[in-house]
Amino acid sequence: MDDDGLVLNLASNDVSAKRFVSVKKSGKWTDRLKAKRVAEKKRKLPQKQSHVHGDDELDESPRPVKRARLADPPKSPATAPKPPAAAAAKPKPSKNFISSLFTSNPVMKPTEALATPTPASGPSNAPVTDSSTFLGLGLDPLLVTHLQSKLNIEKPTSIQRASLPLLLSADRTRDVFIQSQTGSGKTLSFLLPIIQDLLPLSRESYIDRSIGTLAIIIAPTRELAKQISDVLESLLTLRLHNPDNPEEDVRLTRWMISGLLTGGATRTHEKARLRKGLPILVSTPGRLLDHLQNTSCFNVGKCRWLVLDEADRLMDLGFEETITGILKGIDGRRNLAQKAAEEGNTMDVGGWDWSRRRRTVLCSATIREDVQKLAGQALLEPAIVKGSTAEDGAAEGAEEKFAAPAQLQQKCVVVPLKLRLVTLVALVRSLVSKAVARQGQSVKIIVFLSCTDSVDFHWDLLRKTSMDDDDTANDPSDDDENEEEDGDGEGDDKRERKPKRDAIEGRSALLPNTSLFRLHGSLATHTRLASLKGFSHSSTNPASVLLCTSVAARGLDLPHVRAVIQYDLPTEGGATEHVHRVGRTARLGARGEAWAFVAPSEETWVDWVQEKTNATLARVGVDAVLRGGFGGGNAKEYEARATQVQTAFEHWVLKSSEHAELARKAFTSHVRAYATHPGDEKHMFHVRHLHLGHLAKAFALREAPSTMKGPQTSAHIKFKSNSKSKGSGKHRGDGMDVDTSRTEQRMEHAVRQQGKLTKKGGMAVSSGANEFQQASTADLERMAAAFSRR
Ligand SMILES: Nc1ncnc2c1ncn2[C@@H]1O[C@H](COP(=O)(O)OP(=O)(O)OP(=O)(O)O)[C@@H](O)[C@H]1O
Fold it and tell me: Can you give the residue ranges of the Helicase ATP-binding domain (predicted)?
């Protein structure tokens, strides 16, 4: 760490009362000249009163008395302001610190104001407003009553209106492929028919959980599996009243025990539950296959339902072979069970209709080639169900695309690399203050970052950076009380047995009224689930911010998310991933806004994503965002405020080698992740286009780490697969099934090849095909037609 003579004068957490001060500044001679001129100008100007303020409070108080520069002639002890501790300990030569944040940035195109509205559209994923009812769609009155009375669900959504009649029908000859917008209620679309189908079993004869597993739902991540399992529980804990016999409370669902297998618990514990019987199972793919192969008491021979949720994500994560194994495993066990029943070698009581085939439901946002292949393998004569209709905002005749909800306000801000970090802080501040100003509304914001190291770094940076001189950690999440034990005694996974305890909720001196959470695949399952729970239900502060990787992009239904910020644009999944990420807000007809941080070299991404998703992204100027978060009547004021904040960040990083290492690691991992953008996106995202020195600023570093220095070419980036990076790389999916070293290799491969990438078995391989190509509806129709001719 070089000694650059940084001296801070940031004496309290109130940003408005601070000024950034004197630091020796190295850099280009032009910068130094500019600094000198500005300093001279300042000296000449009369001491104006400043009202630099944050959105949360308007600070009209006069600027504190200007502190004497250290090299000024000594004043009398009574009048001389006390120098900050750091300065006192280490006096520096007098040179004004002029931030280089606002110099040498690319010239920005003029943009619209912060308040520029995006075209207003009616909600496209809300419950329908026509005369459709759940009853009319064929749902059992018991379930309808329960939905209304306990879950407050009155009207179906368009995907439920389209899928329920098919899935509830007694004609079970066709499987179903569901494609619909985010937040449109797909989960109930498959859970309700499963429950309705199983309900009569307890009426027909005595039944208990020893019947085994009758329905399996597979989800790509642990969080999603847990969420589906929670919705299922809420449906099963019903005390269903039998209208034919109102005297009698019949718990028709008493035997329908649901189970969750995600690899977070011990196999022994899961085996014991499977032995007792779990009629409805929610699982991640790896652990399910494991039990199918190794748990003899896993009674799945009578399985009637199989749901593959987020099928395209399952493919992305390389679960193709796992799913094939699962299909074979289920079929094999069914054949054995049927044979045993026919030969009378079974303890089962009563008959079982073996002629009835299993129904398979596949949910997917896109109908890519690999998803079509999976559908071909798993589905029989699939009926294709779509939630999107003309009423959902799709213009007639327009090509159907996987689009974000129509009511979602999408915005983008082109941010010079050096300004990224302070712009993020400004945006969060302004979103929070606006929501709080609106009758103290609570607000939840999700921030997507490129990799786990970056999430960890920003989590620490935001929580621990102080505007105080002594810079003691200001976040109570450092206390043991706020920390969660890794694992819960159930973890049999060595990776999860870290002696360290993870904090769940944090606070930042820079983000008033805000609780911070984080989520990524390298955290222990227990921590991940606790973070999600905390983010969803925290009442400590009116605002909650979740810093996360793409692990949170799909399927998660987190209540009241007001905004999604893509601080880093998706490296995998292209436009589809973008739609999933922004779909964490504006769910079920609710309003929401989505922000994308775009580097000047990435500007063509805006047109690209608009074209791919039929969306309009309103362009907002970075100056408008900075002003919104830091306040100030003119550019100089918010620039000063932004500089103070940046300086505080840099100060924290310089404070210890541990912090600096965290920043360097985050920077390096981020650049590596950046290099994994697929070949057909390289014109928009190429490491060569990044000014690494400027990017370093966004990690509060004064310069790019030495391994990254040199000409701005990707060829100069070093990729090491050492044990350190293996342990801290990004994990996707349920965090167990993706090997970080593989990711490292993929990244290296991506940089070397600079070619087009596609994935097979979770690995990136060279191919001429477009990885993220979306098949048209016509493709699926053709595929379905081909199946029906078989
Ligand atoms: N008919 C309905 N009326 C009111 N709320 C509903 C209805 N159907 C579902 N919901 C609620 O809507 C929310 C979103 O549902 P769900 O998570 O199933 O959406 P999704 O389509 O699977 O989204 P994603 O594509 O992001 O996974 C849930 O909180 C759910 O309880």
Answer: 167-385
